[in-house]
């Protein structure tokens, strides 16, 4: 034991003395302008971790399936992980669509406020819309059409009504109505835009508050769905070999199939209830 401890101490000492001096390394980084020009970068393992983090979330299902397949010496987890890739991809894309819709809704609210400010500053409606919508993302794919209609005296309300069909751009229909009433009938455009902005902002805040209240129910459903994994880990820690039972015995395979179906059905039902409450 004393010889082993001595060898360990000698190895640690050699490793510490063999490391480059921290001060010298900092000096080289400063002289090289940050270290990139001198070829001093993050270690390979950090670069590998960064690449893994950039992978889409659905590929972690396949990686987990490979890991469980190796631990359980069965191809079934690998097949399950491969099946989970398209399902998780749909979930990720749905989340991206929802985030894009929310960002466009916020951009429409900002566009209404900016347009009201331009009109209140004394500019004509067409010029005010050109200035307010120049850097706005609320118009989406209809940005060029709206700008052309405002610049050349086209049918601005009609183009705005068409642009309102985009996901998250429902507020543009109200903007089109305000434009039609104000420009065609001589009503106050700034006052109408202020009321429209207040209404859209109140609706957005209500939707965000509802989503925050439903986040607890969604998290609870996901947590309950992950409890069987905790049970497998506890069984493995106790030496019960749950993976062998589930993947290499008839009764275990039957329990795995029935449990997987019930687990998926329960998770789908709980998330459906949350989605319907959010949509309502």
UniProtKB/TrEMBL annotation:
**Coiled-coil annotated spans:** none
Pfam families the UniProt entry points to = T2SSF
Q: Which keywords describe this protein according to UniProt?
A: Cell membrane, Membrane, Transmembrane, Transmembrane helix
What are the Type II secretion system protein GspF domain coordinates in residue numbering?
A: 113-233
State the species of origin: Streptomyces caeni
Q: What is this protein called?
A: Type II secretion system F family protein
The main place the protein resides is membrane
Q: PANTHER family, from UniProt?
A: CONSERVED TRANSMEMBRANE PROTEIN-RELATED, INTEGRAL MEMBRANE PROTEIN-RELATED
Compartment(s) where it occurs, according to its Swiss-Prot or TrEMBL record: Cell membrane
Transmembrane intervals: 59-88, 221-240, 246-271
Q: Topology in the membrane?
A: Multi-pass membrane protein
Q: InterPro entries given for it?
A: T2SS_GspF_dom (IPR018076)
Q: Does the keyword ATP-binding apply?
A: no
């Amino acid at each position: 034991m004393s010889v082993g401890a001595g060898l360990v101490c000698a190895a640690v000492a050699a490793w510490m003395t063999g490391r480059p001096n921290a001060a010298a390394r900092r000096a080289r980084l400063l002289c090289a302008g940050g270290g990139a020009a001198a070829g001093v970068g993050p270690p390979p393992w950090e670069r590998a971790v960064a690449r893994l983090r950039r992978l889409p979330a659905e590929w972690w299902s396949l990686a987990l399936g490979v890991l469980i397949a190796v631990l359980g010496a069965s191809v079934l987890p690998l097949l399950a992980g491969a099946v989970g890739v398209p399902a998780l991809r749909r979930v990720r894309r749905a989340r991206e669509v929802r985030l894009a819709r929310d960002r466009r809704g916020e951009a429409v609210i900002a566009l209404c406020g900016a347009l009201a400010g331009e009109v209140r500053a004394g500019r004509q409606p067409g010029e005010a819309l050109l200035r307010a919508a120049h850097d706005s993302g609320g118009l989406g794919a209809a940005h060029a059409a709206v700008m052309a209609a405002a610049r050349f005296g086209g049918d601005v309300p009609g183009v705005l009504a068409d642009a309102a069909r985009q996901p998250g751009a429902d507020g543009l229909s109200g903007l089109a109505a305000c434009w039609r009433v104000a420009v065609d009938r001589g009503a106050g455009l700034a006052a109408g835009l202020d009321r429209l902005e207040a209404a859209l902002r109140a609706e957005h805040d209500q939707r965000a508050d509802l989503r925050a209240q439903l986040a607890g129910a969604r998290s609870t459903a996901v947590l309950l769905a992950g409890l069987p994994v905790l049970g497998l880990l506890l069984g493995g820690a106790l030496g019960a070999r749950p993976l062998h039972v589930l993947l290499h015995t008839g009764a275990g395979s039957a329990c795995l199939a029935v449990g997987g179906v019930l687990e998926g059905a329960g998770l789908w039902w709980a998330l459906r209830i949350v989605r319907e409450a959010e949509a309502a």
